[in-house]
Design a protein that fits this description.
single chain; two-stranded antiparallel ribbon; elongated
Length: 146
Amino acid sequence: MRKVKIIILVVVIALTVLFVTQNQPYFQERHRFVFDPFVLEPITLPDLPNLVYFVICLGIGGLLTWLAMVIGRFRLKKELKVLGQTTTSQQVKIDTLNRELAEVKAIPSITEPVASVPENDLVEDASVTEPDHREENSAPASADKV
């Protein structure tokens, strides 16, 4: 990754040098910069080549970008610190809950469940399960013939 950054930096510098050399007449022209804030007296800079103004603006932009990055880093460090504290407190809570769970599992239950018999072990016998109620309601077939 470091080599890629160096290559990109070299390309940017080369393009900047190419841009300046191709536009030398523009960058060598001299202009006077006047800043008039309406409430104060106008501020006038001496005649400077456009290249100087270009470098000043580029430097101010780089400084503002660096400042924004530093502010962002401080915010991220603060957020990282808060998240680290949150993680620590949640880990303590998880450990507490795990200990409580282990204690609950270690306590023998007062009402142990009755061992159930699997259904395939049951013997199905009609005489043992339910009596047939149809026989009581109807008369025997042999009694009718007599």
